[in-house]
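Recall from the previous chapter that SMILES is a line notation for molecules. Here it describes MGD.
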Amino acid sequence: MKKLPKINRRDFLTLFGLTSAAAGCPAMASAMQASDPDKQYKTFQATCSMECLHCNLRAYVKDGVIEKIGNANAFDGKPCARGLSRIKWVYAKDRILYPMKRVGERGEAKFERISWNEALDTIAAKIKEAIQKGGSESLLFTSASGNMDSLFNPSQVAFGNYLGGTTRTAGSLCCSAVTATMMPMVGKRYVDTRDTIDQAKYIICWGNNPLVTMQAYWHYYLKAKENGAKIVVIDPRKNETAYRADKWVPIIPGTDSALALGMIRWIGENNLLDTKFLQEHTGAGYLVGKDGKLLREDLKDPNSYLVLDSKTNKLARHDAPGVVPQLQVKDNPEYKTVLTMVLEQAEPWTPEAVEKTTSVPAATVKELAHDYATSKASMIVNNMGSFQRTEFGSQAVGGQYYLAFLTGNIGKAGTGICDAGGAQQMAKFGAPIPAPLEKPKKVAPIPTAKLGEYVLAGKPNKINFWYTQTCGIVGQWPNANKVIEAVKSVPFFVVAESIMTPTATYADILLPATTVFEYDSVMAGTRNHYVQLIEKAVEPQGEAKPDYVIFGELAKRLGFGDRYIVPVEQMIRNVLKPSGITYEEIKKGPVCPVKGPWIPFKDGKFYTPTGKAHLFCEPWAAKGFLPVVTYRQVKESPVGNPELAKKYPLMAIQRKVIRNIHTSFQNNEWLDELFAKEPTVQMHTKDAQARGIKQGDKVVVYNDRGQHPTVAIVNDDILPGVLCLENGWWMGQNGFNSSSVLTNDTVEVLGTGTSICSTLVDVKKA
Ligand SMILES: Nc1nc2c(c(=O)[nH]1)N[C@H]1C(S)=C(S)[C@@H](COP(=O)(O)OP(=O)(O)OC[C@H]3O[C@@H](n4cnc5c(=O)[nH]c(N)nc54)[C@H](O)[C@@H]3O)O[C@H]1N2
Ligand SMILES: Nc1nc2c(c(=O)[nH]1)N[C@H]1C(S)=C(S)[C@@H](COP(=O)(O)OP(=O)(O)OC[C@H]3O[C@@H](n4cnc5c(=O)[nH]c(N)nc54)[C@H](O)[C@@H]3O)O[C@H]1N2
Ligand SMILES: [Mo]
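With both inputs in hand, we obtain:
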């Protein structure tokens, strides 16, 4: 008998859309009743704009009130319970309705209502004061994934530029490691292969859980299965996708690049390289000199890479007519090829060596390599996965790309590496607001992972004023307790929010932000293939304003309103202009910039300056790293730091859950009815028994950074020695807190990302 997925009943119901979600939540059900909808209601389009798949939404409005939410165009799937529950975001009990000033301690949530004028005048004065004291670099502006449309965060960035350049964060909380690999290797980020998943024959979900995290297009995977595809999941825990897959391959966290190198070695050894693809479409044959640098014909021409022509056995430019590069040049004292370098790094990774480091059995390493190389239409799904939120995450991503290049599994239907992807990658879009006349100065940023530490240390600049929007500063950023200390240390802290979140409770001035359906905007993003208009369906609750309007008001007070303020329809037109898509078109409905299935790097055409895929990453070398993928041991791990592991022997990883998108939706009344009220930690039976912990026990996961009270899930569907924590719980929610109080704040080295999945902890009964 087929094993059923072990997701709870409500998770399961929610996955399958409207009616089933409604079954778990009567209020949601009544709001969704669709008796002749279009005639009774005025309808407006929008999109679910936080960091998810930006599904299209339609608000049904009667007498100025949104009565239900549906979707206009089911291009990727129907919106999930979260999308539908946005009605309860607009009309939330804890909506912030008015500007307020703090009257209690930071974090106490004691506020007093003030007028917009008082709020804006105070903020403008504080900005001026901060600049006077410490220059514009003493202003810190943060924004992240709460609203990823084309106006909101860009209006903050533009505002900072008009102020002369401010401190911002560098890298992302999310997937900078993927960017650090894709940019040098393929010349572009956010290219997804969702359109042809159904044509893949072999799919590896690598550190990725699409059933939960890419829910809207999970149906493509079901289609692939129907078409006979085999799905394999590589994850330290048996995730929700793994229950539906053909194989679960547990792996020790942070060791994915060793597995990739082992697969590469086996593929090379067994002559399964796609030589034609490598010769024609990649830089595998570029020559590397004794100094470890790529050889060029003309040092002034960065694209003049030299290869050894296999016909003439002479050096030639890689792109000279008729040249076919030799892929391996051995025993030449002057140079070797990039492929030789790659295979040298793979050489130590015999199946047995891989098993020792990763815990993946040697036989499985061979099987994965064989099946991936021979299935003819193999796809890897990494989609911003947690596997890359480790110290050397870029290496693991690089290993995945090598596998695709070496076997020619890229640029064709059913192949490739599925990343997040959207309209941004298919067309050009413009900035909504013109740049200031005076160029802003370059200000050294703060790596996202180090927000707490840097602000506390006044690094690189002492911060006098901090303005934040669209992110969960308190609770969602690594080493959360340190971030809270940092927030408390800054003289003036402004938060723009729609909901009384933990971050909001720390504000000196709290500004009421609008939510989707209360403003006009446009989404030309990196998570959905369609350009979507976001329409104002109802008047904002209370005195809420869109972030771009707030900045316009501040700009007036600071003397640059004339140039900065652009009417919203014009901002939308400015964004659309370079793409050729018009406002009038998207008014009718979502528009995809390309026709037919989107196949990134189609026919082996990459976005690097040479049009070839590059296996040698010069930007990595510039940072002092080996330019090809290698295995590096993460420091915060039992092998990397045995001393620390004596105190904290367990490896804590993170997972996304269906009830929220990060801290967003976590307070939503309808979702609260549908889902668990407590965060969980999954652990192996052995680890639980050793600590006297049973299924359902209240436990505390802890390390030197903090303590995370949670509830134990005990089973054998996770590797011994690994704990899996949930993402998104609020500080203080239902007596619990965020798992971020524990997370490692080491900077992921190549992409300036985070290392939250390389965290050592222990767990005890509460
Ligand atoms: N429901 C929901 N969907 C979301 C989000 C959300 O918050 N909620 N967030 C969105 C965002 S911003 C992102 S970045 C994506 C993330 O999308 P995913 O990557 O699919 O999500 P995660 O749950 O973070 O990680 C996937 C799996 O990686 C495993 N893992 C952890 N460490 C390692 C490791 O070292 N190696 C390997 N092989 N596996 C490891 C975890 O056990 C987990 O099951 O999801 C997006 N979609
Ligand atoms: N422990 C742990 N930490 C993690 C992760 C994990 O798996 N575990 N995952 C990491 C990843 S992959 C990511 S991407 C990050 C995400 O982390 P963040 O980007 O900080 O995301 P959220 O916590 O969802 O915060 C978004 C906030 O924006 C607000 N918001 C929404 N729309 C608007 C708007 O229009 N205007 C304004 N002003 N505010 C708005 C929402 O109400 C919400 O409070 O978290 C990272 N941190
Ligand atoms: Mo993310």
